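Milestone M4 deliverable, item 7.
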Amino acid sequence: MKTIGLLFASNVFMTAAWYGHLRFKSAPMWKAILVSWALAFFEYCLQVPANRWGYGRYSAAQLKVTQEIITLVVFAAFAWLWLGERLRWNEAAAFGLVLAAVVVSLP
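Output delivered:
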Protein backbone atom coordinates (compact mmCIF):
# COMPACT_ATOMS: atom_id res chain seq x y z
CA MET A 1 0.00 0.00 0.00
CA LYS A 2 3.00 2.28 0.59
CA THR A 3 3.84 1.99 -3.11
CA ILE A 4 0.35 3.02 -4.22
CA GLY A 5 0.26 5.95 -1.79
CA LEU A 6 3.61 7.23 -3.01
CA LEU A 7 2.53 6.85 -6.63
CA PHE A 8 -0.60 8.90 -5.90
CA ALA A 9 1.44 11.63 -4.21
CA SER A 10 4.03 11.69 -7.00
CA ASN A 11 1.28 11.98 -9.58
CA VAL A 12 -0.15 15.05 -7.86
CA PHE A 13 3.22 16.75 -8.33
CA MET A 14 3.58 15.42 -11.88
CA THR A 15 0.15 16.63 -12.93
CA ALA A 16 0.75 20.04 -11.35
CA ALA A 17 4.10 20.26 -13.15
CA TRP A 18 2.68 19.27 -16.53
CA TYR A 19 -0.64 21.12 -16.47
CA GLY A 20 -0.67 23.64 -13.59
CA HIS A 21 0.77 26.41 -15.73
CA LEU A 22 -2.20 26.27 -18.12
CA ARG A 23 -4.14 28.33 -15.61
CA PHE A 24 -1.54 31.11 -15.88
CA LYS A 25 -1.33 31.73 -19.63
CA SER A 26 -0.03 35.27 -19.11
CA ALA A 27 3.01 34.09 -17.13
CA PRO A 28 6.26 34.10 -19.11
CA MET A 29 7.26 30.76 -20.58
CA TRP A 30 10.53 30.68 -18.62
CA LYS A 31 8.62 30.95 -15.34
CA ALA A 32 6.26 28.15 -16.34
CA ILE A 33 9.23 25.95 -17.21
CA LEU A 34 11.10 26.77 -14.00
CA VAL A 35 8.10 26.12 -11.75
CA SER A 36 7.30 22.92 -13.65
CA TRP A 37 10.84 21.64 -13.18
CA ALA A 38 10.74 22.49 -9.47
CA LEU A 39 7.50 20.52 -9.05
CA ALA A 40 8.88 17.61 -11.08
CA PHE A 41 11.76 17.30 -8.62
CA PHE A 42 9.32 16.42 -5.84
CA GLU A 43 7.51 14.02 -8.14
CA TYR A 44 10.73 12.07 -8.63
CA CYS A 45 11.49 12.15 -4.89
CA LEU A 46 8.26 10.16 -4.40
CA GLN A 47 8.10 8.13 -7.62
CA VAL A 48 11.57 6.59 -7.42
CA PRO A 49 11.06 5.13 -3.91
CA ALA A 50 7.56 3.97 -4.88
CA ASN A 51 8.88 1.96 -7.80
CA ARG A 52 11.92 0.68 -5.88
CA TRP A 53 9.82 -0.55 -2.97
CA GLY A 54 7.03 -1.85 -5.19
CA TYR A 55 9.24 -3.77 -7.60
CA GLY A 56 9.26 -7.41 -6.59
CA ARG A 57 5.76 -7.39 -5.21
CA TYR A 58 4.68 -6.01 -8.59
CA SER A 59 6.37 -6.49 -11.95
CA ALA A 60 7.64 -3.43 -13.81
CA ALA A 61 4.70 -3.72 -16.21
CA GLN A 62 2.22 -3.87 -13.33
CA LEU A 63 3.81 -0.79 -11.75
CA LYS A 64 3.54 1.06 -15.05
CA VAL A 65 -0.09 0.14 -15.71
CA THR A 66 -1.03 0.97 -12.11
CA GLN A 67 0.77 4.30 -12.41
CA GLU A 68 -1.20 5.10 -15.56
CA ILE A 69 -4.60 4.65 -13.91
CA ILE A 70 -3.44 6.69 -10.92
CA THR A 71 -2.33 9.39 -13.36
CA LEU A 72 -5.76 9.44 -14.98
CA VAL A 73 -7.60 9.63 -11.65
CA VAL A 74 -5.35 12.43 -10.41
CA PHE A 75 -5.60 14.23 -13.76
CA ALA A 76 -9.41 14.06 -13.84
CA ALA A 77 -9.61 15.57 -10.35
CA PHE A 78 -6.98 18.18 -11.21
CA ALA A 79 -8.68 19.19 -14.46
CA TRP A 80 -11.97 19.63 -12.63
CA LEU A 81 -10.67 21.36 -9.49
CA TRP A 82 -7.80 23.43 -10.93
CA LEU A 83 -8.75 24.04 -14.57
CA GLY A 84 -12.54 23.90 -14.24
CA GLU A 85 -12.89 21.21 -16.92
CA ARG A 86 -15.49 18.46 -16.69
CA LEU A 87 -14.78 14.94 -17.88
CA ARG A 88 -16.70 14.13 -21.08
CA TRP A 89 -18.31 10.72 -21.62
CA ASN A 90 -15.74 9.59 -24.21
CA GLU A 91 -12.85 10.55 -21.92
CA ALA A 92 -14.48 8.65 -19.05
CA ALA A 93 -14.85 5.63 -21.36
CA ALA A 94 -11.16 5.84 -22.29
CA PHE A 95 -10.21 6.02 -18.61
CA GLY A 96 -12.39 2.96 -18.01
CA LEU A 97 -10.48 1.02 -20.66
CA VAL A 98 -7.20 1.87 -18.94
CA LEU A 99 -8.71 0.70 -15.65
CA ALA A 100 -9.63 -2.57 -17.36
CA ALA A 101 -5.98 -2.91 -18.41
CA VAL A 102 -4.92 -2.54 -14.78
CA VAL A 103 -7.36 -5.24 -13.68
CA VAL A 104 -6.12 -7.60 -16.42
CA SER A 105 -2.44 -7.00 -15.57
CA LEU A 106 -2.59 -7.54 -11.81
CA PRO A 107 -2.30 -11.05 -10.34
